[in-house]
Amino acid sequence: MTKEAIDGLTVQDIISKYGCHRATAFRAVKRGYIVPKYHVRSVRPLSDMALFPTSSATKIATAVFWRHFRSCLNEKDDIEQESLLRMIELSGKSIDPNFLYSVAINAMRNFLKKKGNKQWIREKKKL
Questions:
Q1: What are the strands, taking DSSP E only, across 39-87?
Q2: Any long-range contacts for 73-78 (C-beta under 8 Å, 24+ apart)?
Q3: Which of 52, 54, 72, 76 is deepest in the core (most CB within 10 A)?
Q4: pLDDT tens digits for range 18-61
Q5: Is the pTM of this model over 0.85?
Q6: What is the dihedral of CA 99, 105, 111, 113, to 10 degrees?
Q7: How far apart are CA 105 and CA 79, in angstroms?
C-alpha cells in the first residue's frame, strides 16, 4: 500500500476521487496523504498452493471451534469453512500455525458477528 499526497484537495474532492468515507477524507486532509483502498479486504494467497498445510489448517479450525465457539454447534460447518477460506486468503502472508490460529479465531468471530448469532453474542464475554 502506497501513500498518495493530496496537496490542495478538499474533503469533497477526495470523496469523489477515491470513493472513501467522509471521515476518512477529513483525516487524509489533516494528515496530508491518503492510502487508496486501505479498507478493502486484502487477499494474499500462496503462489504455490501445494505448500499450504491443508491438514493442519483443518485441525486448527476444528480446535478453535471446539475451544471458543462450541455453543454454535448448529453452524459448525459454516464457521469452519469461513475460517479455512480466510486462512487460504492470508496464506501468502504466513503459514505459521500460531498465525493461522489467530486468523481462524478472527474469521469465526467476524462470521458470527455478521450473521448476528444471538447465542454467541450472549457468551462472547467468555472469550
A1: none
A2: 75/112, 75/115, 75/117, 78/111
A3: 72
A4: 888 999 999 999 999 998 877 777 676 777 778 888 899 999 99
A5: no
A6: -130
A7: 10
